[in-house]
Amino acid sequence: MFISYQMMALEAPSDHAEIDTLFHRWESALPAPVSYEDNGLCSASKCPNHPVYSASFLTISMANRVPVRQDSDLTALLKWAKHSDACIRAIALGVIVKRIGFDQNEFVIGMEDPECKAYHHIMVLLTQYLHNKKVNYDNALFDGMFVIVKPNDVSALVSGKWEEVVTADSRLREQLTFDEPNFLLETLTSSNGQWLSEHQLKSKVEAVEITNEQQLLITFSHYVSPGKKMTFLLWPLSQDIMWLRHSTKFGAWKKFHRAK
């Protein structure tokens, strides 16, 4: 099932001062945890703005302190979900997750990272939740996030060269180059500090569909064997970050960044 709709226009905002006051207080200091389970733990290097006991993603118990009384209050949480501090983002996301019922109302590891699939998935589902609940909101709240995409967006979102994000000691990585309708997926190997192309898959776009998660489901035909079809899911999160996987159930998501 595929969806498409337009974001609604901005209505007069409700009073979100109570939410903002609480988050402004947490910007400077988070309350000390009652127990390990209360706030979790993170390293000081990952959470530089708070003591070592604070967390890069906090448990639901922390998010429960945020007063969300109606669905329109979720729009006030968006700016905090995009905050530069991982702790602040995590608390705001925890509130959103609970309200919209994402992943059984539970925290997802890494969801506070704007380059994580979970973070983006939450934002996509939030737009759909607001739409279904008939909550008016400003398009600008989601600026820079590809929460609504269309099949004809594929060239604007994906064109260019992309490199898989791998660890420093990795000896293999993938690289893709997209120049609609041409799609080149290469497997590179590391040799003497250089990445060399070992295998190439050249294909062209046959069809583009949009999934409920706002992923690009693209069907390609192989240039050498045109009758051979393959499908990939491309999930652009921003101008510079995209996730990709083969559309089979065994395919693993791989993170790519736009090549400099």
Structure write-up:
With 260 residues, the protein is α+β, with helices and mostly antiparallel strands. 25% of the residues lie in helices and 25% in strands. The chain is built from seven helices and eight strands. It has helices spanning 17-28, 36-39, 60-63, 74-81, 86-100, 117-132, 154-158, and strands spanning 160-164, 172-179, 182-191, 194-210, 216-222, 229-236, 241-246, 254-258. It has an eight-stranded antiparallel beta barrel with strand order 1-2-3-4-5-6-7-8. Strand 7 (241-246) and strand 8 (254-258) form a beta hairpin. Helix 4 (74-81) runs antiparallel to helix 5 and helix 5 (86-100) crosses helix 6. It is globular, with a radius of gyration of 21 Å. The model is unreliable at 1-14, 41-45 and 52-57 (pLDDT under 50).
Secondary structure topology:
Layout: H1 17-28, H2 36-39, H3 60-63, H4 74-81, H5 86-100, H6 117-132, H7 154-158, E1 160-164, E2 172-179, E3 182-191, E4 194-210, E5 216-222, E6 229-236, E7 241-246, E8 254-258
Antiparallel strand pairs: 1-2, 1-8, 2-3, 3-4, 4-5, 5-6, 6-7, 7-8
Helix pairs in contact: 4-5, 5-6
Query: Mean pLDDT score, rounded?
Result: 82
Strand content: 25-35%
The major pleated sheet works out as: 8 strands, antiparallel, barrel
Tell me the number of structural domains: 2
> Could you tell me how far the N terminus lies from the C terminus, measured between alpha carbons in angstroms?
36 Å
Poorly predicted ranges: 1-14, 41-45, 52-57
Count of extended strands? 8
Shape: globular
Question: Gyration radius, to the nearest Å?
Answer: 21 Å
Q: What is the element string, with H for helices and E for strands?
A: HHHHHHHEEEEEEEE
In the sheet with the most strands, the strands line up as: 1-2-3-4-5-6-7-8
Class from helix and strand fractions:
alpha+beta
Number of helix segments?
A: 7
Proportion of residues in helical segments: 10-25%
